[in-house]
From TrEMBL:
Listed GO MF terms: hydrolase activity
Stated name of the protein: NUDIX domain-containing protein
InterPro entries the UniProt entry points to: NUDIX_hydrolase-like_dom_sf (IPR015797), NUDIX_hydrolase_dom (IPR000086)
One Pfam family, short name: NUDIX
Cited PANTHER family: GDP-MANNOSE MANNOSYL HYDROLASE (PTHR43046), MUTT_NUDIX FAMILY PROTEIN (PTHR43046:SF14)
Cofactor: Mg(2+)
Origin species: Virgibacillus salarius
CDD domains: NUDIX_ADPRase
Domain Nudix hydrolase: 2-142
Length: 154
């Protein structure tokens, strides 16, 4: 399997971040909306398409905040995604419509059960992946930018 590019949206409104919700045997966990880039798409096109599919929302894409590399064999989920090698480009984004319009989209992510707004002030209490992003979100709210490249983290 090759390296896959993925675009993710960091959508923050009134101190909360918009996520998609999934569930496994350990309970609920949360991911940023977005997903894989298709051949022929640029990252912005991929992000707009994925967000629309997953949360039924149109977004305006802002700055590239950070890049995360994920090499599955190096992390706790290696037994089922050890062949995964993904580079995620995380962009600040804002909703073009009203927050109340956000819901599971017409093509939700595999295993997606809902969308959730998580308070950034207590983000450490949630299983948000990548976990390494959580402290940077808290710092971002205090106007401290994270490093652009986060490395191979989960």
């Amino acid at each position: 399997m090759g390296i896959r590019n993925s675009a993710k949206a960091i959508i923050i409104h009134e101190g909360e971040i918009l996520t998609i919700m999934k569930q496994d045997r350990d309970g609920y966990y949360y991911l940023l909306p977005g997903g894989g880039q298709n051949k022929g798409e640029n990252l912005h096109q991929a992000l707009k398409r994925e967000v629309l599919e997953e949360i039924s929302a149109v977004v305006e894409i802002g700055e590239l905040l950070c890049i995360r590399e994920y090499i599955g064999k190096n992390h706790e989920h290696a037994t089922y995604d050890g062949d995964t090698h993904q580079i995620e480009y995380m962009f600040i984004a804002s909703l073009e419509g009203d927050r109340s319009q956000v819901m599971n989209g017409v093509l939700p992510d595999d295993g997606q059960i809902d969308v959730a707004w998580l308070p950034i002030s207590s983000i450490e209490n949630y299983r948000l992946y990548p976990k390494a992003l959580r402290p940077y979100l808290i710092e971002y709210m205090a106007e401290v930018k994270p490093p652009v490249y986060l490395g191979d983290v989960n």
